[in-house]
Write a structure and sequence with these properties.
The chain is α/β, with parallel strands linked by helices and about 300 residues long. It is built from ten helices and twelve strands. Helix 1 crosses helix 2.
């Protein structure tokens, strides 16, 4: 059943005339008659009583006109809603991130909401290792991870250069170190560690082991936020993603100390389906993420490539 034919029937019903409907629609009268005949064939019912002087609807015609008006209203509504989606006046974008990569998304969410406040944004906390599969399954529009998933079906574009930072509280003896500190100077320190397994934690442990430096993990915490609070209170030291402590470093609540044998780059990647089109909302979010300041590391940072 063709919507154009339904529109023709509605015009005939309103004008009560085939000829006036033809004039209204700028078509010939035979074309109007053929459109009505096609509908009658599709419905298996006579829709217009042609015996009357004025084109009068049959009971079946009245029913079809009633439903046709509803269908055409829904079409207009759909066109309006699609226009809103294209103009980012509605819609939703869902991005997967873990606790540390979510810090990268904070300014992007703020900029996105300032520009397109009608679009809902959900940053879904996820295990980093599951994000690529969730993007492929369509459960996430995008993801931000700190490793290369090495999947052909996904694009994984580096959008930010983070690194691991060694942090202490401001009155710690190492806080004022003018030069990089040797790794062996950390042998007596009490570390506060993240109790979530990650390649970066494994790298830290193996680096201390290779350097034959004791790694005293005194406290393990479930979140980076809790680790920062304990370090700021002088209860230990920690290695954390630098992006997660930038605000505290600027405010002077924490200090970063350079460690000579420990420089680890942590590139953050925006993950998206390689094939298939992103929604307008997701494409706009991805564009903002790609334009984020890269915060390029110093040239002597060691690149650690990991897979999880």
């Amino acid at each position: 059943m063709d919507l154009a034919d339904l529109e023709t029937l509605l015009t005939v019903a309103r004008e009560r005339s085939f000829s006036r409907a033809a004039e209204k629609l700028h078509r010939t009268q035979p074309a109007i008659s053929q459109a009505v005949q096609r509908l009658e064939h599709d419905c298996g019912e006579i829709l217009i009583d042609r015996a009357s002087r004025r084109a009068r609807l049959t009971p079946a015609g009245e029913l079809v006109v009633q439903r046709a008006e509803q269908m055409l209203r829904e079409r207009l509504r759909l066109q309006h809603e699609l226009s809103e989606l294209r103009g980012l006046h509605r819609g939703k974008v869902t991005v997967g991130a873990n606790e540390s990569t979510a810090f990268f998304l904070l300014p992007i969410v703020a900029a996105y909401r300032a520009r397109w406040p009608e679009v809902k944004v959900e940053i879904r906390r996820s295990l980093s290792r599951t994000i690529p599969a969730e993007v492929l399954a369509g459960n996430l529009d995008l993801g931000v991870i700190a490793y290369d998933p090495e999947l052909r079906e996904l694009s994984a574009e580096v959008v930010y250069h983070d690194r691991l930072a060694f942090i202490v509280y401001p009155r710690h003896p190492l806080a004022q170190a003018a030069k990089p500190v040797p790794l062996k100077r950390l042998a007596s320190e009490s570390f506060i560690a993240h109790n979530v397994e990650s390649p970066y934690r494994d790298f830290t442990v193996s680096t201390f082991r290779r350097g034959q430096v004791p790694l005293n993990i005194a406290v393990e915490m479930p979140t980076i936020e809790s680790i920062k609070h304990l370090v700021a209170r002088g209860l230990g030291v920690a290695f954390v993603p630098r992006i997660s402590v930038e605000q505290e470093l600027r405010a002077g609540a924490l200090r970063e100390v350079s460690i000579r044998q420990f420089k680890v780059e942590r590139p953050l990647r925006l993950v998206a389906p390689r094939h298939g089109r992103l929604s307008h909302a997701a494409a706009a979010f991805a564009s903002l993420a790609r334009r984020a300041p890269p915060n390029l590391p110093s040239a002597n940072c060691k690149l650690l490539t990991v897979n999880c």
